[in-house]
Amino acid sequence: MSNPSDQSHQEPTELEQLVTQNRDLQQRIAVLEAQLRAHGWAGGQDTDQEDPAVDDSLRQTYKMEVLGTFTAGITHDFNNVLSVMLGYADLTLYDVPQGSAAWHNLQEILQAGRRAKDLIRQMLTFIRRDPAPAQPTRVADVVDELLKFLRAFLPSTIETRYYLDPDLGWIQSDATQLHQVLMNLCTNAEYVMRETGGILEVNVEPVGRYVRFCIRDTGPGMAPDVASRIFEPYFTTKAQGEGSGMGLAVAKAIVTQLGGTINVSSTPGAGTQFNVYLPSPDDPEAIFPSEAISQTLRGRGRILFVDDEYMLADLGYRMLSRLGYDVLAMTDGREALERLRGNPQAYDLLITDQTMPHITGADLIAAAHDIRPDLPAILCTGYSHVVDAETAQALGAAAFLMKPIEFPELAALIQQLILPEQAE
């Protein structure tokens, strides 16, 4: 059992490499645009007759391409930072009396960190164009976030009324995307009552197997022909420059993706009401165990933990040692491979980061399996365009985790991979 030793690397970070790549990409874009102008935008079209819409569309495509690449690098580095924050807050939580002021402060840090984690996941979902997985979400948490937003956002000319059922329970959802939907509905309500004032009502209640979120305003309302088109992409009643026409279209897409429905009812002169229905999970308690998990997640075994970030390697050592495991934490994947080659039976589990200098986590797992084919491995990453859960499994990893990794999540997974007879 050993603490990680700090090692410095002179190679550029992944973010620095991405910035360089973006600069090169922008230069290539400029060259391509010049070539297109020289030949006309469409098959020899005269450059004096270029279509501005095509020009803007192509530029927007290029910008989104660059933004996606740059965002990927930022999310990777930010996930590493967030892993340290959440990890040490989690560790400290077990050292303070439950219910104390310090305990409550740590809970706030963890809640904010998880919110940031959800935001990053949404950014990655945007980059990959993949749907975010719906999962059991505590309705009260979503409502609390919404009410905090409204208190800070709404002017005094708009009165807010809340009708919240005391037994809201759970929904099958993605907390960050649901928050985006509700904020969109509330900001639209604020917009239509901005000049005249009015009342914004938020009503949340169980309805059969669903939970209904009702957002109602006392604004001017909409005519039937407007209400019938309100969820169409690019349709907007706002003044030019004040709305893209995509807010409600995206909201509907998110709700549908989460297995729910959204509808609108409106009468001119009598306001507008949006209803969002999201399904409740069959058994959320089976997915979310009791918070008193520190004892149930303890275990025995020998773990080789590899991450080139010293603070993350140290955090892994501390977290896993507290759970009862013998841990060797290292910051150099090549040295970790040599340790394993020197004594293949010394470890019951390999946990490695994906993006590291000299050797990637996927290559480390492949090399480890050449030495000992039955060694289970967990591959972790803040973001990688090369590896996801499916490819990690194809490469031989027993599990794949996205950073930031939380204490209970990792502990439960290790219990599944290290069998009691292996740890003897």
TrEMBL record:
CDD domains: HATPase, HisKA, REC. Residues 302-418 form the Response regulatory domain. Pfam families: HATPase_c (PF02518), HisKA (PF00512), Response_reg (PF00072). One of its GO terms (molecular function) is phosphorelay sensor kinase activity. Its EC number is 2.7.13.3. InterPro entries: CheY-like_superfamily, HATPase_C_sf, HATPase_dom, His_kinase_dom, HisK_dim/P_dom, HisK_dim/P_sf, Sig_transdc_His_kin-like_C, Sig_transdc_resp-reg_receiver. Residues 73-282 form the Histidine kinase domain. It is an enzyme of class 2 (transferase). The modification 4-aspartylphosphate is found at D353. It catalyses: ATP + protein L-histidine = ADP + protein N-phospho-L-histidine. Keywords: Phosphoprotein. PANTHER family: SENSOR HISTIDINE KINASE, TWO-COMPONENT SENSOR PPRA. This is histidine kinase.
